[in-house]
Design brief:
homodimer, four-stranded antiparallel sheet, 12 strands
Chain lengths: 243, 243
Amino acid sequence: MNSGYLHSVSSIISHPLLEEYPALWASTQPPLRRLIMARDHHIFMHGDTASSLWLVISGWVKLIRQTPDGKESVVGLCTDGDMFGEAALFAHANYPYTAQVIGNDTELVAMPSATIRDMIAKDPSLSARIMALLNERTGQAQLKLEQQSTMSAAQRLGCFLIRLCQTQASGERLLRIPVEKHILASYLGMKPETLSRSQHQLKSVHVTVDGHEVMVNDIEKLRQFVCNSCSQSGSCDAEEALG
Amino acid sequence: MNSGYLHSVSSIISHPLLEEYPALWASTQPPLRRLIMARDHHIFMHGDTASSLWLVISGWVKLIRQTPDGKESVVGLCTDGDMFGEAALFAHANYPYTAQVIGNDTELVAMPSATIRDMIAKDPSLSARIMALLNERTGQAQLKLEQQSTMSAAQRLGCFLIRLCQTQASGERLLRIPVEKHILASYLGMKPETLSRSQHQLKSVHVTVDGHEVMVNDIEKLRQFVCNSCSQSGSCDAEEALG
């Protein structure tokens, strides 16, 4: 486990939580671990002791779970700036999913559970920031749940793409999404053939898919197609960029 | 708003968070408000300033949202022991849904936002407890999302009933669920006619529905029908009672 290349954290690492709380890594002995992991590497398994909180610096990680009767579901797809393994914030907790690298050379930072819990106990502003992150996470999961009934499959795929465009509100954007079709379909709560149909439908709003590359030719047009069927319209992270 | 009958908090109020942190209400001037609200009363509206964190002492509350194109979705159904309005934990936040009473004489406790944020800043153990609650909420939303693809509609209804049985692991239980069919269906992510079919299917595991009363004749049998298709099988709150 964690057999990726180990580096000490360098100053080039950029993640909102580390930028706001430089003491988070400065105070740790040994320093927070920076890891570069190859595709398919298992970061941790469902049920493992939650020993670290993880930040994605660059790349892609899938979070998966299995049911006793053998169904697998993708409960998360994490990329640049995302956090996973929040169970590490709590004593004696286990990870509630398996985390596996899906992008080549994915760069991660692991924050040891004991260190971060100690810092949270000492710094009320950090605990407030972490609570806000947890609350945001709940909001995202609830919204995804709601969108299963208020949005078409093509709109849900469009929403996923808008989030990847992050703060960019208009113009064009080329996205690289090295995620296999059945993984992305499971994450979006649809069958692979529905995902294919949805990709085709998005052509009408100038989105073209070529393998793992997705070209969003007109972000504003895609928003018009998607956001009218979303109760967060006007207040989601992606839309705040609109000001 | 909040036109329910106002009472000061009496010692008979029972909620885990209040039991663990009696100082939460003891320290507040004026005391935490205890409210008994009638059916259909709007507790707050989507977008209102999040001025209080709410606890359900007894009764039922629905949390709903609307999309710009007019679709309504039920994002939460809260009953005894549930918490809602977590946005109040954060400065300058708004409620991300409308909360409305659906059970007659629903008893609530409102914890003023400023008070609870002040206490969290002073008491690291309270902040850890609140973080754990927020994390649990995220886990529940993610699990519900996953169950949309791993479980049948009848299993999802069964899971909802098992949660209402709380810590009871076997034997029978009579549940009173004063929730209209279209509301419950929306919450469970299915159409009203699918909910009717699911109720019918649960007869085979000895669950009988009579209006708003649901008789679970054999909790263990219902668990066998439901939990094998759930990745949390063996570790969900309801199952911990099994020891």
